[in-house]
C-alpha cells in the first residue's frame, strides 16, 4: 500500500511541476495481407525503426490479414483517420485519385532500376503530392513487384491464349481494362482469393512471384506465364487529417522511417525472386518464361487513348512517364 501511495504522489507532483508523464502515441497501420507478405515486411520494418528512433514516444499497431477490411476499406479508414497509416497496393487507389493509373500502365517500366528511378524522382513526387487532394499524405513507394499471370486452364504463351480466361483483378478500372483488351474475362474480387481459385469460380489471377509462394497458389494453379505486364507498387500513406497534427520534427522522423522501410522491402523482395521461381517449378507449376510479349503489348497499346487516361492531369503525367521510360 505504501508503494502505491508513494507512486501516486510522485505522479501528482510531476504533473504539478509541469512535467506530465506522456503516454506513447499509437499509430494504427493497415495492410490486407498476412505476415511474410511484401506489405507486412515493410510495415514491420517501419514499426521497428520508428519505435526505436522515437524512444518509445510512438508505438505502431499493425492490422494485417484483412482484419480491418479490404484495401479499399483500409483507404477509407485512413481518409477518416480511423487508422493513421497503410501500405496499400496502387490499384485500389485509382477509385480515389485517378492519377495513380499512370504507374500501372502496362509494360511501362523496363526493370526494377527504372521503376525506382521514376517513382523516387520528380514524377513519382507528383503522384504522392496529388494524393493530398483526396485526404492522404503520400510518403513513398514500396514494392509489390512485377505481376505475372497464372491460370488452371491452359499454357499461355501469346496474348491470344488469354482469350476467355476468367481472371481475378483488383478493384481497379485500369486493371479491368487491361484484361478486357487482352480478351480475358476480368473479374474484380477482393483479397484473398485462394478459395475462389480452388473452387474454379475464377480460372486465374495475376500477381508478383511472392504471392504465388506465400499464398501457396502452386497448390491450385497449374500454369504460370512471366508476363511482367505491370510493375505493381505499394503506396505508403498516412491520413492527411492526422499528419497535419504532427510537429515538423515528428513528420520528418516518420517520413524517413517509412522511406527506409520501403527501401528495405524492395531489397528483400528482389533478393528472393530467383528462389521463389525455382520453388514454384519444384512444386509442379508449368512456367512459360519467355512468352511472346510483343503480342501482349500490341493488344494494350491503345489504352493511353481510353477515357481512363483522358483527364488532363492524368494524361499529362502519362505522357511524361512514357517519354522518361522509352
TrEMBL record:
Keywords: Signal, Transport. One of its GO terms (cellular component) is outer membrane-bounded periplasmic space. The keyword ATP-binding does not apply. PANTHER family: C4-DICARBOXYLATE-BINDING PROTEIN DCTB, PTHR33376. This is ABC transporter substrate-binding protein. Residues 1-23 form the signal peptide. Transmembrane segments: none annotated. Belongs to the bacterial solute-binding protein 7 family. CDD domains: PBP2_TRAP_YiaO_like. Pfam families: DctP (PF03480). InterPro entries: DctP_fam, TRAP_DctP, TRAP_DctP_sf.
Amino acid at each position: 500500500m505504501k508503494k502505491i501511495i508513494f507512486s501516486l504522489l510522485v505522479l501528482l507532483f510531476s504533473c504539478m511541476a509541469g512535467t506530465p508523464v506522456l503516454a506513447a502515441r499509437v499509430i494504427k497501420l493497415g495492410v490486407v495481407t498476412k505476415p511474410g507478405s511484401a506489405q507486412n515486411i515493410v510495415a514491420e520494418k517501419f514499426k521497428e525503426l520508428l519505435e526505436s528512433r522515437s524512444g518509445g514516444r510512438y508505438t505502431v499497431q499493425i492490422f494485417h490479414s484483412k482484419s480491418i477490411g479490404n484495401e479499399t476499406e483500409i483507404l477509407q479508414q485512413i481518409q477518416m483517420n480511423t487508422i493513421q497509416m497503410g501500405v496499400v497496393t496502387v490499384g485500389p487507389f485509382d477509385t480515389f485519385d485517378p492519377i495513380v493509373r499512370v504507374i500501372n500502365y502496362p509494360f511501362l517500366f523496363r526493370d526494377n532500376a527504372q521503376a525506382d528511378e521514376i517513382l523516387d524522382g520528380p514524377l513519382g513526387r507528383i503522384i504522392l503530392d496529388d494524393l493530398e487532394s483526396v485526404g492522404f499524405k503520400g510518403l513513398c513507394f514500396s514494392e509489390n513487384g512485377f505481376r505475372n499471370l497464372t491460370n488452371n486452364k491452359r499454357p499461355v504463351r501469346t496474348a491470344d491464349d488469354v482469350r476467355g480466361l476468367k481472371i481475378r483483378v483488383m478493384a481497379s478500372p485500369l486493371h479491368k481494362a487491361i484484361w478486357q483488351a487482352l480478351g480475358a474475362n476480368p473479374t474484380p474480387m477482393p483479397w484473398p482469393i485462394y478459395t475462389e481459385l480452388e473452387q474454379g469460380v475464377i480460372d486465374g489471377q495475376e500477381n508478383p512471384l511472392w504471392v504465388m509462394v506465400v499464398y501457396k497458389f502452386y497448390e491450385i494453379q497449374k500454369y504460370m506465364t512471366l508476363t511482367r505486364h505491370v510493375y505493381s507498387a505499394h503506396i505508403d500513406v498516412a491520413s492527411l487529417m492526422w499528419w497535419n497534427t504532427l510537429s515538423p520534427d515528428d513528420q520528418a522522423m516518420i517520413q524517413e522511417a517509412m522511406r527506409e522501410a520501403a527501401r528495405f522491402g524492395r531489397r528483400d523482395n528482389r533478393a528472393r525472386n530467383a528462389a521463389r521461381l525455382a520453388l514454384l517449378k519444384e512444386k509442379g507449376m508449368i512456367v512459360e518464361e519467355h512468352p511472346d510479349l510483343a503480342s501482349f503489348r500490341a493488344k494494350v497499346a491503345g489504352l493511353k487513348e481510353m477515357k481512363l487516361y483522358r483527364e488532363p492531369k492524368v494524361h499529362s503525367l502519362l505522357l511524361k512517364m512514357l517519354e522518361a521510360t522509352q
